TrEMBL record, chains A, B:
Keyword Nucleotide-binding carried by entry: no
Organism listed in the record: Bacillus timonensis
SUPFAM superfamilies hit by this protein: Winged helix' DNA-binding domain (SSF46785)
CDD domains: Fur_like
Main location as per UniProt: cytoplasm
UniProt keyword terms in alphabetical order: Cytoplasm, DNA-binding, Iron, Manganese, Metal-binding, Repressor, Transcription, Transcription regulation, Zinc
Annotated compartments: Cytoplasm
Cofactor: Zn(2+); Mn(2+); Fe(2+)
Protein known as: Transcriptional repressor
Cofactor note: Binds 1 zinc ion per subunit.
DNA sequence: CTGGTTGCAAAGGCTTTGCAACAGG
DNA sequence: CCTGTTGCAAAGCCTTTGCAACCAG
């Protein structure tokens, strides 16, 4: 958090209470909140401001956008250890899990496609425990 | 294509010229078209019909939805060999590439999270060849 | 002070839906 | 025929934007 102040200032950006609160809220939610979930925690900050700042943070690579929200985007802080995601197809929940980084696949992809590789992502899809139980009830 | 007729009929769904054309168009486009790209090929079919049918085909698992279109969804036919995707961060293009299926990761994810696993996906991000050239020009 | 920021309301862009006319089987 | 389907226009939903008031530095 503190390390952001010089980072923003260098770029002529200001530390506003809104920006601080948005980041603190994402931190406190821990998971992968949507804009709507962030706004629910800090309803006195306008939705437009949250949208604009989340977008700004993504462009500054402070946040990462996860496009798996069924139309909505979810966000996570980038200053976290590498991990992959598992998504529940019933409730939409996203959980992190650790797995050795798939470094090889980037080399292969580069050889096969001649792309200049930047990163990769991997998601596993399934049913979380509580949705498995609910399914059993039907 | 032919194998779809009994598949739809079993479910009380009809084979309409629109449905046939939508699937043929996706086939002919080969890649991972958006709804808009499909509609551009068959503009005499209403956008609403294309949306409704694409959605129907996804629910029937004839099509798979790829949520990497920067807001738009892209679609691909499911009756294709397993493969992974590489995305160009500049132009948004999606290319398939082959890599041994990451079966192990599903077992690990199951052990770590207790999810019931259905599938997984993996995307590599980078710059395609033609966007690499363009970048060099700047 | 002064240019970046906020927040409201309006506009945008993609997608879904209500409904009357239509048509596959 | 009868129920599923089409297509228009309208509505929905999430997100972005114009702009005046505001405020961080």
């Amino acid at each position: 958090m503190q390390e952001l102040i010089p980072f923003l200032k260098e770029r002529g950006l200001r530390i506003t209470p809104q920006r601080t609160l948005i980041l603190q809220t994402i931190l406190s939610l821990k998971g992968h909140p949507t804009v709507e979930e962030i706004h629910r925690q800090i309803p006195h900050i306008s939705l437009a401001t949250i949208y604009n700042n989340v977008k700004l943070f993504v462009s500054l690579r402070i946040l990462k956008e996860l496009p798996y929200g069924n139309g909505l985007s979810k966000y996570e802080l980038t200053n976290q250890p590498n991990h992959y995601h598992i998504l529940c197809e019933a409730c939409g929940d996203i959980i992190d899990f650790n797995y050795p980084t798939l470094t090889q696949i980037e080399d292969v992809a580069n050889k096969l496609t001649q792309f200049k590789i930047n990163s990769h992502q991997m998601e596993v899809y399934g049913l979380c425990q509580s949705c498995q139980r609910k399914e059993g009830d039907d």
